[in-house]
């Protein structure tokens, strides 16, 4: 598919440059929505707006919904006000919330003003919940039924809400005060007799409160295999619904963010080719500055042990090896535990268990790698040097794995993103302490 998109891009760009709008519209008409989306993602922002304007309204909304929120925000800034209003009105309230988070406050107010009163109220209700909560990601458009309703009455509600509801495959069941008492699936409704009362066929509900984190609610939805999860307020009254496709979108967003930060960059929130150079630079520069400051600490440690290096210059050869081994070991542990935290396999109360497990893992890795290092370095540089390297690797691996394992938990305890906090800290701490261990072991073994 990449080759096809490249060919399409090579065909499209000359048409844009020559302003052959009819030919562009004809080319777009031969593509499906996914192909148009992929093609637009490969164009600069100014060219995207030109091409996007040539799409029919319904198709433009379908393509727009496929973009990442950050990419949507960039595209909106290049469209005319009337076009933006039409597209914005065609989105679901939760999708509007995603988009509005990427836009300046002034533009947000204008876009909300262009909605009908009912649509504006639903969108405002979603935006009223804290950022990062599932209330921001739920849909307030749903079909619900009552405990005392019959299957026939419920099916009538389903038919009436076909066009507006986010989903009809899972229906919350409410009492007279809108408390969620259960859920009923469309399959159960179709299987039951028309006069069956809903309370007889409903299942126990699994719900999340609107103030739960979006990742936590999405993870529960995915782990339990739910098609939809009712979202309730603090008094268990229904306020919205989270569908499995929205849950998958949230998890993809969070995992992209975590993997980016673990790699030392800020998430782009838009396709690579659609990202301006200045944004690529800004997404990386802060992390490089942080890591450079950490490296300065490592240089300071080297200067303290300058006399030791002067006596045995061979020791300097192995500094990159030891730093790299410690950093990689720590980052492996941090990545594993961060993932376990996200999945709910590990909690903040498990810090002691994680500590002992990662200490055992790090020690085992250190013994294996240290023995190999002892043999190879010993044969090449002498077994005294080999012993220094072997003992240091064993110590550094034990330390790095332990620190790498508990740092994500510490980050969670102080309410910091583990992916943001763990790796820079691990790199700085392990580099500095690893070198201190290295030179202390060298002085003890070599008597210098």
From TrEMBL:
Pfam families, per database record: CBS, MgtE, MgtE_N
CBS domain ranges (all copies): 138-200, 201-259
PROSITE patterns to which the protein is assigned, alphabetical: CBS
This protein's UniProt keywords: CBS domain, Cell membrane, Magnesium, Membrane, Metal-binding, Transmembrane, Transmembrane helix, Transport
InterPro entries: CBS_dom, CBS_dom_sf, Mg_transptr_MgtE_intracell_dom, MgtE_N_sf, MgtE_transporter, SLC41_membr_dom, SLC41_membr_dom_sf
TM regions (residue ranges): 285-305, 359-381, 387-413, 425-446
GO cellular component annotations of the record: plasma membrane
Primary localization class, coarse: membrane
Highest taxon of the lineage: Bacteria
CDD domains reported for this sequence: CBS_pair_Mg_transporter
Topological relation to the membrane, as annotated: Multi-pass membrane protein
Protein location: Cell membrane; Membrane
GO molecular function, one term: metal ion binding
Stored PANTHER family: MAGNESIUM TRANSPORTER MGTE
Quaternary structure and partners: Homodimer.
Function: Acts as a magnesium transporter.
Family: Belongs to the SLC41A transporter family.
Name recorded for this polypeptide: Magnesium transporter MgtE
Organism: Flaviflexus salsibiostraticola
Organism lineage string: Bacteria, Bacillati, Actinomycetota, Actinomycetes, Actinomycetales
Gene: mgtE
């Amino acid at each position: 598919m990449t080759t096809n998109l490249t060919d399409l891009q090579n065909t499209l760009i000359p048409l844009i440059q020559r302003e052959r709008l009819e030919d562009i519209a004809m080319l777009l008409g031969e593509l499906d929505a996914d192909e148009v989306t992929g093609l637009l993602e490969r164009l600069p922002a100014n060219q995207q707006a030109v091409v996007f304007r040539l799409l029919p309204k319904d198709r433009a909304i379908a393509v727009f919904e496929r973009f990442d929120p950050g990419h949507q925000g960039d595209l909106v800034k290049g469209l005319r006000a009337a076009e933006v209003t039409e597209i914005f009105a065609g989105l679901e309230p939760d999708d509007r919330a995603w988009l509005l988070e990427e836009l300046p406050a002034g533009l947000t107010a204008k876009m909300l003003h262009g909605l009908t009163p009912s649509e504006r109220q639903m969108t405002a209700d979603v935006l009223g919940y804290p950022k990062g909560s599932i209330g921001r990601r739920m849909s307030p458009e749903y079909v619900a039924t009552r405990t005392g309703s019959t299957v026939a009455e419920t099916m009538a509600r389903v038919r009436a809400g076909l066009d507006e509801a986010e989903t009809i495959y899972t229906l919350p069941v409410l009492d007279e005060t809108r408390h969620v008492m259960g859920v009923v699936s469309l399959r159960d409704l179709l299987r039951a007799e028309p006069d069956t009362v809903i309370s007889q066929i409903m299942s126990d509900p699994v719900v999340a409160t609107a103030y739960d984190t979006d990742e936590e609610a999405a993870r529960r939805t995915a782990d339990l295999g739910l098609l939809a999860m009712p979202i309730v307020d603090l008094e268990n009254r229904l306020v919205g619904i989270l569908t499995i496709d929205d849950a998958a979108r949230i998890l993809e967003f969070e995992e992209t963010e975590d993997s980016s930060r673990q790699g030392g960059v800020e998430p782009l929130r838009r396709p690579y080719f659609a990202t301006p150079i200045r944004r690529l630079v800004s997404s990386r520069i802060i992390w490089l500055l942080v890591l450079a400051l950490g490296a300065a600490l490592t240089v300071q440690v080297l200067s303290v042990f300058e006399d030791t290096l002067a006596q045995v210059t061979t020791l300097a050869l192995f500094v990159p090896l030891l730093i790299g081994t410690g950093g990689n070991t720590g980052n492996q542990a941090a990545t594993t535990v961060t993932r376990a935290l996200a999945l709910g396999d590990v909690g903040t109360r498990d810090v002691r268990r994680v500590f002992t497990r990662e200490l055992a893992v790090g020690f085992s890795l250190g013994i294996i790698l240290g023995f190999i290092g002892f043999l190879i370095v010993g044969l090449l540089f002498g077994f005294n040097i080999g012993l220094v390297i072997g003992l240091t690797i064993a110590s550094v691996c034990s330390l790095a794995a332990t620190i790498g394992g508990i740092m994500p938990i510490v980050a969670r305890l102080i309410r910091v993103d583990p992916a943001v906090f763990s790796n820079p800290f691990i790199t700085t701490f392990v580099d500095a302490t690893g070198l201190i261990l290295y030179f202390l072991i060298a002085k003890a073994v070599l008597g210098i």
